[in-house]
């Protein structure tokens, strides 16, 4: 044997090492930016809380207690630590509802973006790489989607399919694919003229291999950034749809529905709308900060500047 | 080994919302030449004269409009898809831009390995061994395999590209401006490397360049292109020491010489290169030619062999057909 293999090679195949190194560089790059770091930490905290909250706050968000309806937050007169953020008009615990709502919001947000990205990537790759008639067809369909008011589209589809979380994800995802498809198509158009693609063709590599080996990995980083930023949008849309009664079916506690139901009591019990509103705001803020940081870290033109 | 005959590539120019064809860019317009085994041909000319298009069409990266390219006796444009893929093992290309020619997301190993993977050659271990050998041959280290292209300098990237091109042991390599993006000192290293590898592996080389000194340094034979046509082709020494075509003369006179005392006559061409959409009649060069005659605007000059292997397309050397000569006499 030429040299002793390092001990970690037992666990990690050595071809993976360069990738891990690159990932490490990117993470360090993100961490260098204070706003991205704050966003990242906040976002991780939100995600961890939404996953792990039953461990430290296991309260049924649906349990009604009409004796303590509209109880104020704990630190106000008449509040109690039984309901730290107070209760709503049916006596349900607001903190528990927000925590459960975070699961729905995050799940809908990420799943919808995933659906949209999947559709967008496939159509964008085909459209950009093969061009010609297929490109025209896909792009005209995209134009139709863009010309159609998004809310109207979503509401009409939900009205037909009925509201469930699955339908919500599907609808939000399918109405948002255009952005991704166009982004991917644009990147593919410039990538396929790149010399490494031509070099690969010169070797005789088949088109589908070129797409997966050379094109796809190079369109992913702008998509990651775009996707992160769109998660925030989708969460707002989901809240909007819930507010209109088109979101996840009742009695699921979503942030949007909490706003809708609480707005009637806004003068006497401000905490009904304030806390879900703050939850939406902080989630969006953290995602946007993280997304901006990702964009800066992944954009090679800004690297090491 | 490589025979290019009357190669033409016209790119359609589309205008308007119906995208109707309004004309053609005559990028390559009837180019013919031959490359023998182990020979190095230089393809020189101004930017836009069709040298890169010629190179890419030979590899069928661009479909030709007409003409034939015979590689080891096989007509490349008539080949089936599968046969062409097999033949691609034998032909490789090296690009100008060492930043654009390597996929930033792949390690050097993956980049160099790709030809082997595509043609399903060897086991994983054998491939890795071959890659290591190849990297050493081009002056890189085996541990460079694990790095990404952005960790290398321009010259090193070009070495990676050369390793990749050579790993299939091809018999033809086309270098499309292989050193123009590099520093002059690095240019020399890369050219020397190419020359050494050519001796070791005995492949034929086509160097496409706008830099005449680069071409002279490495090439046996030089073809000078102007507006999609080869105006002069011949052994490098003849062509440099005694250029015949007025365009070649002008080009050669513009090459800097490292001798401040030397007085030379500089031939300065007037005007710009005409549009290849609507090329000049007769000889393509006649509007700018300092030695033009009446016939030049009327008749296309044909290549004339003025010495062994040295062809010139110019009316000064009799490159006109019989009818044209009659017009001139009348």
Structural class of chain B: alpha/beta
What count of helical segments of chain A does DSSP give? 11
- The backbone outline of chain A, from C-alpha atoms, is globular
How many domain modules of chain A? Answer: 1
- Uncertain runs of chain A are none
CATH domain class name of chain A: Mainly Alpha
Helix content of chain A: 55-70%
State the major sheet of chain B: 8 strands, mixed
Order of helices and strands of chain A: HHHHHHHHHHH
Notable characteristics:
heterodimer; A: 305 residues; mainly alpha; MetI-like fold; 11 helices; 68% helix; B: 330 residues; alpha/beta; 8-stranded mixed beta sheet; 12 strands; disordered C terminus
Layout of secondary structure:
The complex is a heterodimer of chains A (305) and B (330).
Chain A: H1 17-31, H2 34-52, H3 94-130, H4 132-147, H5 150-161, H6 165-175, H7 177-191, H8 195-203, H9 207-243, H10 255-262, H11 271-298
Helix pairs in contact in A: 1-11, 2-3, 2-11, 3-4, 3-6, 3-7, 3-9, 3-11, 4-7, 5-6, 7-9, 8-9, 9-10, 9-11, 10-11
Chain B: E1 2-15, E2 20-35, E3 40-44, H1 51-58, E4 66-71, E5 74-75, H2 81-87, E6 91-94, H3 108-118, H4 124-137, H5 154-166, E7 172-176, H6 184-201, E8 204-209, H7 212-218, E9 221-226, E10 229-235, H8 236-241, H9 246-253, E11 304-307, E12 310-312, H10 322-329
Parallel strand pairs in B: 3-8, 3-9, 6-7, 7-8
Antiparallel strand pairs in B: 1-2, 1-4, 4-5, 9-10, 10-12, 11-12
Helix pairs in contact in B: 3-5, 4-5, 5-6
């Amino acid at each position: 044997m030429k040299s002793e293999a390092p001990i970690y090679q037992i666990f990690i195949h050595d071809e993976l090492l360069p990738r891990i190194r690159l990932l490490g560089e990117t993470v360090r790059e993100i961490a260098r930016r204070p706003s991205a770091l704050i966003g990242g930490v906040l976002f991780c905290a939100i995600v961890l809380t939404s996953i792990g909250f039953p461990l430290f706050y296991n309260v049924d968000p649906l349990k009604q207690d009409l004796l303590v309806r509209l109880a104020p937050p704990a630190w106000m007169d008449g509040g109690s630590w039984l309901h730290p953020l107070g209760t709503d008009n049916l006596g349900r615990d607001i903190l528990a509802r927000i925590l459960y709502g975070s699961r729905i919001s995050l799940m809908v947000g990420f799943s919808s973006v995933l659906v949209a990205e999947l559709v967008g990537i496939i159509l964008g790759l085909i459209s950009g790489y093969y061009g010609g008639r297929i490109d025209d067809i896909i792009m005209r369909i995209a134009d139709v989607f863009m010309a159609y008011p998004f809310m109207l589209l979503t509401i009409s589809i939900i009205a037909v399919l009925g509201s469930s979380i699955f339908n919500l994800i599907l609808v939000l995802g399918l109405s948002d694919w255009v952005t991704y498809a166009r982004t991917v198509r644009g990147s593919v158009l410039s990538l396929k003229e790149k010399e490494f693609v031509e070099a690969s063709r010169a070797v005789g590599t088949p088109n589908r291999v070129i797409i997966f080996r050379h094109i796809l990995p190079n369109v992913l980083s702008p998509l990651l950034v775009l996707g992160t930023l769109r998660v925030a949008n989708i969460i707002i849309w989901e809240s909007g749809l819930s507010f209109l009664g088109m979101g996840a079916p009742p009695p699921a506690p979503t942030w949007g529905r909490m706003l809708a139901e609480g707005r009637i009591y806004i003068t006497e019990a401000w905490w009904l709308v304030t806390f879900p509103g703050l939850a939406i705001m902080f989630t969006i803020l953290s995602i946007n900060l993280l997304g901006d940081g990702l964009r800066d870290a992944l954009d090679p033109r800004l690297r090491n500047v | 080994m490589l025979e290019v005959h009357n190669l033409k590539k016209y790119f359609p120019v589309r205008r308007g919302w119906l995208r109707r064809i309004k004309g053609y860019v005559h990028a390559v317009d009837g180019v013919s030449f031959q490359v023998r085994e182990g020979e190095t041909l230089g393809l020189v000319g101004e930017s836009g004269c069709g040298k890169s298009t010629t190179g890419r069409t030979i590899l069928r990266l661009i479909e030709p409009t007409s003409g034939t390219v015979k590689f080891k006796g096989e007509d490349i444009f008539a080949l089936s898809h599968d046969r062409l893929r097999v033949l691609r093992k034998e032909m490789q290309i090296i690009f100008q831009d060492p930043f654009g020619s390597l996929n930033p997301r792949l390690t050097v190993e993956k980049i160099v390995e790709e030809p082997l993977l595509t043609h399903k050659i060897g086991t994983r271990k054998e491939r890795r061994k071959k890659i290591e050998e190849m990297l050493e041959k081009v002056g890189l280290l085996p541990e460079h395999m694990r790095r990404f292209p952005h960790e290398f300098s321009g010259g090193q990237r070009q070495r990676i590209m050369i390793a990749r091109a050579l790993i299939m042991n091809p018999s033809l390599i086309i270098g499309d401006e292989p050193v123009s993006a590099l520093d002059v000192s690095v240019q020399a290293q890369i050219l020397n490397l190419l020359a050494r590898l050519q001796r070791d592996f005995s492949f034929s080389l086509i160097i496409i360049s706008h830099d005449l000194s680069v071409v002279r340094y490495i090439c046996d034979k030089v073809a000078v292109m102007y507006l999609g046509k080869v105006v002069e082709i011949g052994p490098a020494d003849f062509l440099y020491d005694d250029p015949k075509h007025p365009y070649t003369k002008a080009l050669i006179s513009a090459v800097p010489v490292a001798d401040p005392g030397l007085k030379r006559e500089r031939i300065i061409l007037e005007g710009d290169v005409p549009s290849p959409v609507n090329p000049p009649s007769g000889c393509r060069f006649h509007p700018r030619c300092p030695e033009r005659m009446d016939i030049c605007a009327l008749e296309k000059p044909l290549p004339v062999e003025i010495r062994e292997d040295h062809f010139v397309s110019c009316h000064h050397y009799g490159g006109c057909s019989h009818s044209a000569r009659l017009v001139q006499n009348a």
